[in-house]
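Private note to self, pasted from the team thread so I don't lose it. Backbone tokens:
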């Protein structure tokens, strides 16, 4: 009997998904964390870039401190300042910024064609070689909002890559997080938003007013949906370390 009980507990532990949290109490109370096999879309203003950048550092940390002990694939589709945010976050968490950079596979793309090619043809090999358990795509819709891409083609291809990402995360048991910044003035925005919400397993939406910031869990398979106020202040995570301004931010450009 004891032997059977031991085997049961071991198998249960192996199937329990890892969680990657924001490590911000106001958010954790609503959303306990991203799970392996999950494809998430995070909507919001520019500060979501900083929030998700924190996850790029947390994923590298040991499991005992809430990390994944993993490298991270970071795809910048909008020429964002995410790498600067990652370095700042590493310093705030007393994590060596140079190590944080070394464990990042940094790729910058400028067009919808390049982003599609990267995801559909190169992402699997990149994840396999790096062993990354987290893939972050910064402002995934941005290249598809460009008027140089035909409306029907943009919709069809965007739909295809979003389906692929959901399947890829599930198949390879990794976490994929795509940020979607505010593009309300773009006429194509509502269509791409609808596709994103439909294809993602998890949808988080951040909003900011002059007085507060809110996070809404719009979609999840098991967590209770709802809204929570929070204070997006990275300095609450830990005491800041000395700034290192000599590190070089390196990208592969496709």
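Design output:
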């Amino acid at each position: 009997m004891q032997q059977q009980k031991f085997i049961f507990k071991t198998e249960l532990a192996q199937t329990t998904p890892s969680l990657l949290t924001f490590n911000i109490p106001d958010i954790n109370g609503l959303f306990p964390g991203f799970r392996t096999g999950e494809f998430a879309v995070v909507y919001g203003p520019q500060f979501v870039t900083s929030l998700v950048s924190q996850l790029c550092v947390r994923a590298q940390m040991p499991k005992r401190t809430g990390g994944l002990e993993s490298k991270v694939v970071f795809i910048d589709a909008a020429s964002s300042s995410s790498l600067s945010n990652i370095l700042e976050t590493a310093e705030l968490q007393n994590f060596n910024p140079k190590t944080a950079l070394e464990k990042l596979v940094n790729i910058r793309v400028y067009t919808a064609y390049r982003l599609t090619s990267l995801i559909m043809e190169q992402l699997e090999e990149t994840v396999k070689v790096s062993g990354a358990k987290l893939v972050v795509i910064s402002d995934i819709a941005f290249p598809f909002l460009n008027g140089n891409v035909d409306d029907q083609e943009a919709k069809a291809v965007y739909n295809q890559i979003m389906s692929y990402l959901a399947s890829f995360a599930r198949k390879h048991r990794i976490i994929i997080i795509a940020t979607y910044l505010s593009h309300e003035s773009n006429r194509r925005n509502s269509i791409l938003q609808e596709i994103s919400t439909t294809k993602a397993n998890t949808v988080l939406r951040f909003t900011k007013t002059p007085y507060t910031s809110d996070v809404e869990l719009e979609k999840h398979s098991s967590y209770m949906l709802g809204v929570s106020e929070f204070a997006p202040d990275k300095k609450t995570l830990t005491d800041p370390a000395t700034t290192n301004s000599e590190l070089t931010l390196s990208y592969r450009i496709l």
